[in-house]
Structures are given as C-alpha cells and as structure tokens.
TrEMBL record:
Species of provenance: Nocardiopsis metallicus
Lineage: superkingdom: Bacteria
Entry annotated with the keyword DNA repair: no
Keywords tagged on the record: Membrane, Transmembrane, Transmembrane helix, Ubiquinone
Transmembrane segments: 43-63, 75-96, 116-141, 161-182, 189-213, 233-254
Annotated protein name in UniProt: NADH:ubiquinone oxidoreductase subunit 6 (Subunit J)
C-alpha cells in the first residue's frame, strides 16, 4: 500500500523558486510581436510595396531630360509630398487596423502593460516607415537617374536624401500616434492627409506662422532653403515637439481608457 506524506511533512514546506523575467525581455518580445504583426498585415504590405512602386513610376514620369532638373536628386525632392501619403497610411494602419477588427482586446489581454505595448507599436511603426521611406527614396533616385541619364546628385548633399527618408518616417510616426488617440482608421488618415496636402500649402501662402505646422517644420530636412527661419536642425526639433506632444496625449489615453 502507498504511504501518504503527513500533513506536517517537510514536503509541504519546500519553497518553490520564482523566476522573474529578465529586464528588457518583455519589451523586446513585445516589439518583435508588433513588428511581425505589422509586416504580415496585408494592407501594410500593400502600402509598402505600393509606395515603392509609385516612387519609381512617378520619378520616371516626372524626370524630363530636356526641360526637367539636370540631376535625379531634384526630381526626388519634388516627389516627397506625394510619397508621404504612403508613410502616413502605414502609420495609421499600425494601430487603427486592430481597432477596426476588434483585435486590440486580444492584444491588450496578451500584453497588459500598456505603456510597453504602445512603445513597441510606435517603434515597429517607426522602423517600417523608415525602411519604406529609404527604399522609396532610393528607388525614385535610381529611376530618375536612368531616365535623365544625367547627374545623380548634382550639387545636393547625400544627407538631404537621408533627411527625406527621416522626414517620411517621422510623419508616419505622427500619423500613428494620432490614430492611437482617435482609435479609428478614416478620421486620422483623412485629417493628416488634409493637413499635409491641403491645409499646409494653403496656410503657407497666407501666413508665415504656417512654418510651425509639423510637415513644414520637417521640410528643411531635405529642403534646406524651404524656410527663412528654420534650419535643417531647428525645423526637425519643432517636428519632434509635435511628436512629443501628440505622443504624451496618446500615452495618457491609451493607458487609462478601457480599450
């Protein structure tokens, strides 16, 4: 017959070791999960590929070897206003797609630390937007150069091309944070696109204070002479100020409301 251990046996008092998660493991895993989720989202992949394809096509169509810019880089800088549509859409899709389908509840259940989750989503959005912007700029540059058969950069600094990619990624991040606040797809998408494509150009022709808008503040990153006050260093600081302000509101709402 089997013998049971006595209730006061030492077996009942053996301490069970508790393994605490190593610092940085949870944020890294959450970031990896959000990155995989974003790159496997069909709409996001279509946006990335579409942005790159449009950059190549528009560069080839607008590059004119006879009447257009003599260098390919100038053609690319003129296309940034259109390429920003792609990174804005990508930024909105990062979070809005989950709210639209209700998957955000599952995500919050799997990652209860909402601050970590928002940081991971933002980092994933920034990385994919940066890669999309860099590839789109490089593709447009190559396409324009093949058409014009002229100078690649002309007198432009290569850092202006880097600045263009940075501008596209930061604008995508701004759209993502606005989508977190709105918890929807269409309102932030229409709002940001209306700002950068309609409101900003109109206000730019009416008042000098339009330079404080996020898109116009970031333009010196790739157009150093776009503003008479902001430099390639001070303008992006204003854009980062917008990111910090909207990010603070997004973090406050994301961590305190129910969903």
């Amino acid at each position: 017959m089997s013998r049971r251990a006595a209730p006061d046996s030492d077996v009942d008092h053996v301490p069970v070791p508790v393994r605490l998660p190593e610092p940085g493991i949870e944020p890294a895993r959450t970031f990896a999960a959000e990155l995989v989720k974003l790159v496997t989202l069909p709409a996001a992949r279509a946006t990335v590929l579409g942005t790159i394809a449009v950059s190549a096509g528009m560069a080839a169509l607008t590059a004119d070897p006879e009447h257009g810019p003599a260098d390919a880089a100038s053609t690319v800088f003129g296309l940034i206003v259109f390429l920003q549509v792609g990174t804005v859409l990508l930024g909105v899709l990062t979070t809005a797609s989950e709210y639209a389908g209700g998957q955000i509840r599952t995500t919050l259940a799997a990652t209860p630390r909402r601050g970590v989750l928002l940081a991971a989503k933002s980092a994933a959005c920034l990385m994919v937007s940066a890669l999309t912007g860099a590839v789109a700029v490089g593709t447009a540059l190559t396409s324009a150069w093949l058409v014009t058969e002229g100078s690649l950069l002309g007198g432009a600094s290569p850092w202006r091309l880097v600045g263009a990619a940075v501008y596209l990624s930061l604008l995508g991040l701004l759209a993502h944070l606005i989508a977190v606040v709105a918890r929807a797809l269409l309102p932030p998408l229409v709002g940001v696109l209306a700002l950068v494509l309609i409101v900003s150009p109109l206000l730019g022709g009416l008042t000098e204070h339009a330079r404080w808008l996020p898109d116009r503040a970031g333009q010196p990153l790739y157009l150093p002479g776009a503003d008479t006050v902001f430099t390639p260093w001070t303008g992006p600081l204003v854009l980062c100020g917008w990111l910090l302000a909207v990010g603070a509101v997004a973090a406050l709402l994301f961590t305190h409301r129910d969903v």
